[in-house]
Design brief:
Blueprint: E1 2-3, E2 13-17, E3 23-27, E4 40-44, E5 47-48, E6 52-57, E7 62-71, E8 79-85, E9 108-111, E10 114-123, E11 127-132, H1 136-146, H2 161-164, E12 172-174, H3 186-194, E13 198-204, H4 214-217, E14 224-228, H5 230-241, E15 246-249, H6 251-260, E16 270-274, E17 289-292, H7 300-305, H8 311-323, E18 327-328, E19 334-338, E20 361-363
Parallel strand pairs: 1-18, 2-19, 4-13, 4-15, 5-12, 15-17
Antiparallel strand pairs: 2-3, 3-20, 6-7, 6-9, 7-8, 8-11, 9-10, 10-11, 13-14, 14-16, 17-19
């Protein structure tokens, strides 16, 4: 995979996996003229926390990096599950990072302006639970002063929060950016509005995409709290009733909407928790297509696509992405994938517009 190493790179590409299995390579700007009046696009508006904290493990005096990974409870701003690393920083590949100091319940950590106590070790030595000392305001202030965005070795320079907030970012509750949302800009949203393509948001606390531990990575994503606003739930119900399509901007939106679905196959408004993986054999009842990044077959994001397309289609998709030199990771290119309808047919992708700097390539199924 070619890693996109900078935020905001131009000439982003889009691979559209169509109703008949054909695949079109377009400029990602073609999203602005995509979909039909009455379709509904849903994005995750969670902003990203500065969730990487460097400090000292007081019992050993050794350095530690704590990457916040999940809320223990959305109602408790003091307690988190976190991933621990020893000396080093993001420029060392996650899987090559030094292990943390020996951790035990009751150990204290000094993490910049914050202090924390280890409450337990759900999966030692990497995954631990911590409680920050202080109230919500103290913790948020300390994160702002001492935290950095979580990042990985494919981006050498330090990222700012501005780099990891999408155009629709609102409440900072995510630990990594809901990166499919980087495909959105205000021009695209404005054109959709003029074309009567509706837009709505949910909010899900996106977790980490890599821990440095194969055993932990196999458990990803961890439980992720979400909220479906009342107006979003109503917009989805209206769209479904009128025969429009629901387009999810990112796997986080798929997880939230499918987890919130009720007996009528419509998402309930309110709070919930998305648990477990969506993969092959999962019955999707809300989302018709998903815009996501470029992922490898072993990653949980790719596994979610198995609920949208069969293995043959995904294999050809991966080959096309490789042959056309699509870029991966959070600042990379995009893929739009349809799902089989409940009747066993595919609803057509409605992509229009002209290509800019990326020529259109059509790949037909064998």
């Amino acid at each position: 995979m070619i890693a996109a190493s900078l935020p905001g790179e131009r000439n982003a590409k889009l691979l559209a996996v169509g109703a008949d299995g054909a695949m079109r390579v377009l400029a990602r700007s073609a999203l602005a003229s995509s979909f039909a009046p009455g379709d509904l696009v849903v994005a995750n508006d969670a902003a990203t926390l500065p969730a990487s904290l460097f400090g000292i493990h007081c019992a050993s005096g050794r350095p530690i990096e704590a990457r916040l990974a999940a809320w223990v409870s959305p109602r408790d701003p003091t307690r988190f599950d976190a991933i621990a690393f020893g000396a080093g920083d993001h420029r060392v590949r996650t899987e090559d990072r030094a292990p943390p100091p020996p951790l035990a319940a009751g150990d204290r950590l000094v993490l910049g302006a914050l202090e924390a106590v280890i409450e337990g070790l759900p999966h030692p030595p990497r995954l631990f639970r911590l409680r920050f000392l202080g109230d919500r305001a103290t913790i948020l202030s300390g994160l702002a002063r001492s935290g950095r965005p979580v990042q990985y070795a494919h981006v050498a320079e330090h990222l700012s929060l501005n780099d990891v907030w999408t155009a629709v970012a609102a409440d900072p509750i995510a630990f990594e950016p809901p990166s499919a949302g980087f495909a959105l800009d205000w021009r695209t949203l404005s054109i959709w509005r003029r074309r009567c393509v509706r837009f709505a948001t949910i909010r899900l606390a996106a977790g980490l995409s890599s821990t440095g531990s194969p055993e932990l990575d196999a458990r990803l994503p961890l439980d992720e709290p979400f909220r479906v606003p009342e107006d979003t739930a109503q917009a989805i119900a209206d769209t479904k009733r009128k025969g429009g399509r629901i387009v999810a901007i990112g796997t986080t939106v798929v997880r939230a909407l499918e987890a919130a679905a009720d007996a009528d196959d419509l998402p309930r408004a309110g709070d919930g928790v998305a648990r477990g993986r969506i993969g092959r054999g999962a019955k999707l009842v809300v989302v018709d297509s998903v815009l996501t990044g470029v992922h490898e077959p072993h990653e949980s994001h790719f596994e979610l696509l198995r609920a949208f397309a069969d293995d043959s289609t995904l294999k050809r998709m991966s080959e096309t992405l490789k042959n056309c030199r699509f870029r991966g990771h959070e600042f990379g290119d995009s893929v739009l994938v349809e799902r089989l309808s409940l009747a066993g047919r595919r609803a057509p992708i409605r992509l229009g517009g002209t290509q800019t700097s990326v020529p259109q390539l059509v790949v037909r199924p064998h």
